[in-house]
């Protein structure tokens, strides 16, 4: 991230109350791994860990997150306060909504896809993966976000990925500081909506509305190679996707090893 020190100073003076601490790394194994080590440490509350490159970035179910150096906004924001452990599943959906809010301020209208992706024109623009540490009935949480911003000149890293990912500069002109600017927008959205994490039911209702549920069709590849397809009806408590299939209602739980087939 260019001029990271100056950006950190700017963020500290931006009026943000909870996400003012910025830690920048040129290269890191994973911002989520780094955050995981800090969870529960009061001095790390509200810390935002940013990397230009990750050597071991992961998505859901351990899938590799591919982002050549400088191409993506890669960060993990540690929530300023622990939340009820029983509500921790809702954070991924809350974070997706907030990233979508930030993109809307750039006149970009993304689609939310269960459980943790943000799409543009049917292709993946952003992935979200949260990490947590449970202490008694409370959960300290880091929101890991990866947004494709600048399309790299060497596209070989994405060979074999279908459909290929999309980048912000595929759809609009973005400047050299687009990653910093988008980070600031996302953190503002996080701050504005922090209180919503006390009410996961309201997060679910908003996510369903913005994701076109009920009505959106999903097709999943199961670990055994079989597929299930149907219309999304709603989210259940815990974040599972309730679908209407030919065989009746079927719940795809967050813990299941499935892959969305777009």
CATH superfamily of the largest domain: Bira Bifunctional Protein, Domain 2
Number of E strands: 13
- How many domains? The number is 2
Q: Structural class, from secondary structure content?
A: alpha+beta
Number of helices: 6
> What name is given to the CATH topology of the largest domain?
BirA Bifunctional Protein, domain 2
Q: What is the helix content?
A: 10-25%
- Give the H and E element order: HEHEEEHEEEEHHHEEEEE
Spatial extent as radius of gyration: 18 Å
In CATH, what is the class of the largest domain?
Alpha Beta
Calculate the mean pLDDT score and round it.
89
List the keywords.
262 residues, alpha+beta, BirA Bifunctional Protein, domain 2, SH3 type barrels, 2 domains, 8-stranded mixed β-sheet, 5-stranded antiparallel β-sheet, 6 helices, 13 strands, 23% helix, 32% strand
What's the topology here?
Layout: H1 4-12, E1 21-28, H2 31-38, E2 47-54, E3 72-78, E4 83-84, H3 91-104, E5 111-113, E6 117-120, E7 123-135, E8 138-148, H4 168-171, H5 178-192, H6 200-210, E9 217-222, E10 227-235, E11 241-245, E12 248-252, E13 258-260
Parallel strand pairs: 1-2
Antiparallel strand pairs: 2-3, 3-8, 4-8, 5-6, 6-7, 7-8, 9-10, 9-13, 10-11, 11-12
Helix pairs in contact: 3-5, 3-6
